[in-house]
Specification:
about 325 residues, mainly alpha, MetI-like fold, about 70% helix, globular
């Protein structure tokens, strides 16, 4: 069938649609593309549910996470104990409800992942912008340090550093307000929050070089562009040029790098806790997996309960990062 004649109404509709497309901002376009990435949206919802459950649990659960009842040890999932308490995921080696432990552990593990990624990104962002924009001796010092750090196996250095921070008789003294903030966010007592804060600072202090390298490369690629030269000629300060021109161009890949760093921190924290060099007194997915390993032959369901959230959160963060990369990639723009 041949198409009918084009009417004035059709022309007006076409003009309205083209005007709407032109009026769409860059971030509206990014958000629209991200919403079309189904796996990224599903995984983002999974992460939001995990985070919401871990934050809201203390308001709905009357039982403390450390309540021990050795009479009801190793109860399997979907069992009601003689006291009439239903345990959806069973109990652990001390008779504590496994679901409560798991969600409190999610609160700590996700807090460590987000906080370490944020602090490390801020450090790497600052040093990378300075190295790329100023060049000269500033770039040489930062670049040489990045190359020096890259020669060491990062995970081994983390093991040594956290062992030095956590296993000493007199651990590093931290400011009281910092410990109080960590205690509130993780719902832990101060002595546990202090160790969590040490783990956060130790990991953040070693995981920023990748972000610094990324930012340095992005700034080097735009430093000599005409609009940067024009801003210099007009008398703009270096700080203004960095914040108004260099940083916005580096922001899209920074978002993707941040999500990938979150996944790295999550796996590192779980691995360190599993090996006994990370957070030990407070429930985390890693040390729950370590505790379950000792009884996995008699109770094979126990390692699956902390292991599956680690896998699920890791995959979810990766898919969200993949969705952000696709949404921000200028080659995909139409």
């Amino acid at each position: 069938m041949e198409p009918g004649p084009v009417t004035p109404a059709d022309l007006d509709l076409s003009l309205d649609q083209s005007g709407a497309a032109r009026s769409e901002s860059q971030w509206q376009m990014v958000l629209r593309r991200f919403r079309h990435h189904r796996m990224a949206m599903i995984c983002l919802a999974v992460l939001v549910v995990m985070l919401a459950a871990s934050l809201l649990l203390p308001f709905f659960v009357a039982r403390p996470r450390a309540e021990v009842d050795r009479a009801y040890r190793y109860l399997p999932p979907l069992v009601t104990d003689p006291a009439g308490i239903f345990h959806l995921l069973g109990t652990d080696n001390l008779g504590r409800d496994y679901l409560i432990q798991l969600i409190y552990a999610a609160r700590v593990s996700l807090t460590v992942s987000v906080t370490v990624s944020t602090v490390a990104t801020l450090i790497g962002l600052t040093l990378g912008l300075l190295a790329g924009y100023f060049g000269g001796w500033t770039d040489s010092i930062i670049t040489r340090f990045l190359e020096f750090v890259a020669t060491f196996p990062l995970f081994v250095i983390l093991l040594i550093l956290l062992a030095a921070l956590l296993e000493t008789e007199k651990p590093l003294s931290l400011p009281g307000p910092l410990i109080e903030v960590v205690a509130v966010i993780t719902a832990t007592p101060d002595h546990e929050a202090e160790k969590i804060a040490l783990v956060i600072l130790g990991m953040a202090g070693l995981l920023w070089p990748s972000t610094a390298r990324l930012m340095r490369g992005m700034v080097l690629s735009v430093r000599e562009h005409l609009y940067i030269e024009s801003a210099r000629a007009l008398g703009a300060s270096s700080l203004r040029i960095i914040l108004k021109h260099a940083f916005p161009n580096a922001f899209p890949p920074l978002i993707v790098d941040y999500t990938l760093l979150m996944n790295t921190v999550l796996i590192y924290e779980a691995s360190l806790s599993y090996l006994g060099f990370g957070i030990q007194d407070t429930p985390t997915w890693g040390n729950m997996l370590k505790a379950a390993e000792a009884n996995m032959l008699a109770h094979p369901w126990m390692p699956l309960i902390p292991g599956l959230p680690i896998l699920l959160a890791s995959l979810a963060i990766n898919y969200v990062g993949d969705g952000m990369r696709d949404a921000l990639d200028p080659r995909l723009r139409k």
